[in-house]
């Protein structure tokens, strides 16, 4: 399937991003300009930029896809992604801006007077950004696959080249405007199709979504199976097959009798309109568990309440620990502006999250083929063309393709900047050349990793990045700002135990350990135990080493908590990065 | 409502947030430098003594009060709804005007209170800082 309009939209977004970014590059002159945009970014523009950077492939594709696959309880991810900004606003926004730390390693070193802690924090920055970047590339692969029909690697490589080249040649100055622009593209690209599909296009009543699952094919549908799949047919159905079914070549009409059938990779089956869609073992079964307000990953996993709390802990406390977001707070004029900016971010992000659920519900009723092929993550991209025939559907599909690509571009460039900044500043030696080289090396590494990740749902991958952030940087920031007795020893214990345990749990989960019951929950939703472990380790470690409290503690606390307006006459000023 | 930052009385040991206050005798403010007229000043904040620490502690406590009064309701909202869903399983099937309740709550209804709490926090935090500023300027 070729979709010239969608291809045009993706190209247009990429070119527009590059052009605005290049203009920014010409304005940047010194390395300082290059790294941080001028401080005078007004709150609404800055909030748009933060939201633009924050709303990633997980928000644009992943939430709708996971909710369609596992049930509406997956919307807790979106709630947590938004609520994380309320926590960030009420605990760290103003003090961090007042402290003047530009990155989390800066904060760690400045607050606790320990270059060693700084290096540990740098390692955590690379780990968290890495976990977060890979699903963006995964999403780009899915998007170009869904719009062009080409192989998965094309999208991954295109995004890798565009972002790496953009970062290595551009800088933050242009990116602030670019990120703000991309937020408005994204919110338009998800809101307009969602509203049109719900209000202007015929569809079954929303209330019937919890009927027997999966639904039936509304139109004659050709289903292409990218992987070998076992399907469970409930009622006999005659399809037009091309490929291999149950081990035998099949070309032309084929009747699938009730029972299990194995469809080989590369096979396509044409289902007649009105026929019931066969079930796939991974899809959630009955209706009321699909519309339950509890998270049921993989269609169950057995402990929905604990899983829900695990995701909430990770997302609500993880947002503040995302390394690429903190940089943006430095571009606020002062602490009060940082608070106002954050409140606007909460508003902008919440507005966006009103729409993914629409795609999940309509997708469950109208696009059962996505369950069969395991491509629910592409529901946002595929639904407009399934529900609207002709030019209207093409236009809507082009709009969502543009929005999706905007999501990958903005988040992955922000993440790559944060990673390259951390790597060049702390490990490779400072300066613009080291920054560019770091961006180049990391960009290539992550592109390769993006090619390797299997079909893990985007949102699950991003949720893991949040879990690691919530188990490492969240306690560092919260305790560092509000608890005077935190010491460098305690902070290191917390980073090592919380960050280490959550990272290992994620890697174990990726490697396939823990497939059911409590092991699956504790490895798949590590935040539920690693966040408390990280806090406890920091508190205990600090209480055991009271002598390691920094000597200039009062100065540091005054700098973080005294409003700038009152600062004249005190020694408190922005702590300069070393 | 938030307690305005109270000009602290110099005492033997005034705890910072997080420390357990020890029982202590309240004494007249006799240890102030002679050149002071009554209200605390900015320089007092940086003094490494109990008085400076108390002044800073009062600002941090007032800020933390605003934080808790906003995050408390938000965390209750987020933590109680899943629990309610376990206790009242019919929530998974309930519909309002033909739309599944879960879609209405998780897909929309839960966001307005979070946004309102956010903007309310901005106002409260700015008020706390304004009052503290008035306190310092009153010298």
Describe the structure.
The complex is a heterodimer of chains A (578) and B (139). Chain A is an alpha+beta fold and 578 residues long. Chain A folds into two domains: 4-202 and 288-566, Sodium/glucose cotransporter (Up-down Bundle); 216-276, no CATH class. Chain A is 65% helix and 7% strand. Chain A has 25 helices and seven strands. Chain A has helices spanning 4-27, 31-35, 43-54, 57-70, 76-91, 93-99, 104-112, 115-148, 152-169, 172-199, 287-290, 304-318, 323-329, 335-352, 356-366, 369-373, 379-387, 390-428, 432-452, 458-470, 473-482, 488-510, 517-524, 527-544, 553-561; strands at residues 221-224, 229-233, 237-245, 248-256, 259-263, 268-271, 279-280. In chain A, strands 1-6-3-4 form a four-stranded antiparallel beta sheet. In chain A, helix 4 crosses helix 15, helix 6 packs across helix 14 (335-352) and helix 17 packs antiparallel against helix 18 (390-428). The longest helix of chain A is centred in the last third of the chain and has 39 residues, at 390-428. Chain B has 139 residues and is an all-alpha fold. Chain B has a domain at 64-137. Chain B has four helices and two strands; from the N terminus they run H-H-E-E-H-H. In chain B, strands 1-2 form a two-stranded antiparallel sheet. In chain B, strand 1 and strand 2 form a beta hairpin. In chain B, helix 2 (50-87) packs antiparallel against helix 4 (111-137).
Distance between the amino and carboxyl termini of chain B: 26 Å
Structural class of chain B: mainly alpha
Largest sheet of chain B: 2 strands, antiparallel
**SS summary, helix count of chain A:** 25
Q: Topology as H/E string of chain B? A: HHEEHH
The number of distinct β-strands of chain B equals: 2
Keywords:
heterodimer, A: 578 residues, alpha+beta, Sodium/glucose cotransporter, 4-stranded antiparallel sheet, 3-stranded antiparallel sheet, 7 strands, 65% helix, B: 139 residues, mainly alpha, two-stranded antiparallel ribbon
